[in-house]
Amino acid sequence: MTDVAPLAGIKVVDMTEALAGPYCAMLLGDLGADVVKVERPGDGDQARGWGPPFLEGESAYFLSVNRNKRSIELDIKQPADLALLDELIGRADVFLTNNPRLESLARSGLDPDTLRSRHPPLVYGAISGYGHTGPKANRSGYDIIAQGEAGLMALTGSPDGGPSRFPSPMADISGGIYTCLGVLAALYARDNRVNGSGRGQLIDVALVDAQLSWLANIGASYFATGKRPPRLGNEHPTVTPYQPVRAQDKTMIIAVGNERLWAKFCKILGAEQTLLGDPRFATNADRNVHRRELIELIEKILQRRPAAEWVEQLVEAGVPAGPINFPDETLTDEHVVARRMIVELEHPLIGMVRSIAVPIRFAENGPTYRRYPPRLGEHNDEVRALSATW
Question: Are residues 134 and 163 in the same domain?
């Protein structure tokens, strides 16, 4: 066994900002790639200003998605800086951009066709709101726009309320993950021993497309029925009980996905002679029809004991259940800590910076966390010096 990360030797020029692109570049860096982050002089990545909270002038938002990178400031309107950028790209395996406008990229010679003609092995990752094809191509887009347009936001929230944004930037994170996946596949297609082409290619990922992929089972239901799905809040459209329920002290989650689990669940609740024998709840389909009555009866029983006691007993019996945690409870949970899901890196200004790890466990040679999120232009001299030998 060698201690070499999966992408050791891969070089990435990251000219993205905000979240989707930086998240993709961070994943590549975590997997071992050498990532150079290119930022505008003076203010850099717009996420550096997204706060509070700030830690010694560094935004927590920026710190969350920019580890394992070096930062260089380049003004691509200046010929010398643009030439340096092209030199870096020419030595790189991957170039990432989230500029939505091809004409803007073309003015600097950074569009896909120009760069790939000059540097055929280059994998070009383009992340944007709507992608670079189709009638909405080149529109600007942020996460909340994608959440709204892709059909999920209209279904999120309570049935009697309005649409609700998912609290974390799920379209951005999904876009970053899909771009990373595409980059890895393109690198394999370029380099694999059987039929590698030796050529890179364009990876075009739209936030709206990435968000739309979350419609998987919801889309299937629409294709099957032609009906607009209702907003169900925390209820599952086809499985009952599979939702939050109120215990004595707090809300917990139960997920009874089949008849075997339903029998176990009723036994633990002491409801074998009531719920289990009630014809209204005989099958999952029946329970879906009579969901309101069933949940009311379940919660009357759960009110007798604290949630933690119910969860412990259900889990011991093999019935899926769990607490509803706040982030502070999750981020200090012993299981999360044991799974090494919290990354700690020493920062020269802030001290220890913590962020969320890559949620993939490799048997060997997995992700490494080597560099704290860089200060703006921290590696200007270093990157300029290595540009000829990178």
Answer: yes
Instruction: Inform me whether the pLDDT recorded for 1 exceeds 50.
Output: no
Vertex 115: Cα angle to 93 and 177 (nearest 5): 50
Which pair of tokens denotes residue 255?
A: 């997920």
181 and 140 fall within a common domain: yes
User: What SS3 class is residue 42?
Assistant: coil
Q: Beta strand pairing status for 321-323 and 251-255?
A: antiparallel
- Whether residues 208 and 347 fall in one domain: yes
| Same domain assignment for residues 70 and 114 | yes
Domain boundaries, position 189? 11-214+335-386
Interstrand relation of 54-55 and 58-59 (parallel, antiparallel or unpaired): antiparallel
pLDDT-derived band at 2, boundaries 50, 70, 90: low
pLDDT at 279 over 90: yes
70 and 189 share one domain: yes
**DSSP per-residue letters across 272-298:** TTTTTT-GGGSSHHHHHHTHHHHHHHH
Confirm whether 223 is domain-assigned: no
Q: Check: CB of residue 126 under 8 Å from CB of residue 202.
A: yes
Backbone phi, psi, residue 356, to 5°: -90, 135
Structural domains in the chain (count): 2
CATH of the domain at 140: 3.40.50.10540
The answer to pTM > 0.85 is: yes
pLDDT in tens, 147-200: 999 999 999 988 888 899 999 999 999 999 999 999 999 999 999 988 888 999
The active-site residue, picked from 30, 86, 93, 172, is: 172
How would residue 41 be classed by pLDDT, with cut points 50, 70 and 90?
Answer: very high
User: What's the per-residue H, E or C state across 330-378?
Assistant: HCCCHHHHHCCCEEEEEECCCEEEEEECCCCCCCCCCCCCCCCCCCCCC
293 & 347 share domain: no
Task: Examine the residue annotation and report whether 172 is marked as an active-site residue of this protein.
Answer: yes
Kindly tell me if the per-residue pLDDT of 115 is higher than 60.
yes
CA–CA dist 212, 210 (Å, integer)? 5
